[in-house]
Amino acid sequence: MFASLPLTALRAFESASRLLSFKAAAEELAVTPTAVSHQIRSLETWLGVPLFERLPRQVRLTDCGERLFHSLHGAFLEVAQSVDTLRPQRSNVNLTVSTTAAFAALWLVPRLGRFYARHPNINVRLDTHCEVIDLHQDASVDLVLRYSLDDYPNLYGLCLFDECFGVYGSPEQVTLAATRTPALISVHWHNSKLYAHGWQAWCAQSGENWLDNSPAVREYDEEHYALQAAIAGQGLVLASNILVSESVASGLLVPYRGDVQVDGAGYSALCVPGRERHPPVRVFFQWLREEALLSGHALR
């Protein structure tokens, strides 16, 4: 049934498709770029369709190439995971998770101790670079924790919770805000589609005229900087109910008019279909689901 499959050529194609480079594929496979090119040419001849567009200094998958890559990558991944389950278990297993620096610092890391207590042999490596990772192209990342308004039909996903924004401050600042206009703290959002004109929306709902009386809104590039400014008593912050949860639980921040909330987006855990069955990924998904329920913000 499988005797006629050109496995060497398929392996070269998967590597070149994932890396979008014949040279990088050659380095990964420990062969020459010419050998990779020859294998892919032979595969295209065998199939009778082009798989790559050869452009100056780069290659791009054709529609047929995209279809083959997605099915082949998932199949190779499942075989690799099956083989791993048959090997004697190593003392430590690495799990690479990509997310934002703010979500890692304010929600994930404070809870990771409970994960390690149950799974001491799994080492979670956090990738907090700002670039959005294409999981179909980057096999080094096991899963991503993503904040977005979008759906991801080509990925296996677990919806963790929806987010809303409220106003928080130190107990002293919240008390003072009842009698005078506070300094306002916010985050400079890199993607304005996710949350635009936040303070304006909150003030419109609450009826507060702070924007008319406050000299300026102090902006920070990251949520954890904005929360630290609020904890230090520098004003009131417009913040995510998810990311502020640890500071509220410890009493460092308290809500101001907690009934007034502005809708945000949602958090999801995502991976390439099939990877959710890999034991470290499976137990991490299960742990995330439990932590989302414990936080009281989980999607029902």
Please provide a written account of the structure.
With 300 residues, this protein is α/β, with parallel strands linked by helices. It has 2 domains: 7-86, Winged helix-like DNA-binding domain superfamily/Winged helix DNA-binding domain (Arc Repressor Mutant, subunit A); 90-300, 3-Layer(aba) Sandwich (D-Maltodextrin-Binding Protein, domain 2), CATH 3.40.190.290. The chain has 11 helices and 11 strands. It has helices at 7-19, 22-29, 33-47, 63-86, 101-118, 171-177, 198-206, 210-213, 223-231, 245-249, 279-295, and strands spanning 52-55, 58-61, 93-98, 122-127, 143-148, 156-169, 184-187, 217-220, 236-240, 254-256, 262-271. Strands 3, 4, 5, 6, 7, 8, 9, 10 and 11 form a 9-stranded mixed sheet that branches. It has a two-stranded antiparallel ribbon with strand order 1-2. Strand 1 (52-55) and strand 2 form a beta hairpin.
Brief digest:
One of its GO terms (biological process) is positive regulation of biosynthetic process. This protein has helices spanning 7-19, 22-29, 33-47, 63-86, 101-118, 171-177, 198-206, 210-213, 223-231, 245-249, 279-295; strands at 52-55, 58-61, 93-98, 122-127, 143-148, 156-169, 184-187, 217-220, 236-240, 254-256, 262-271.
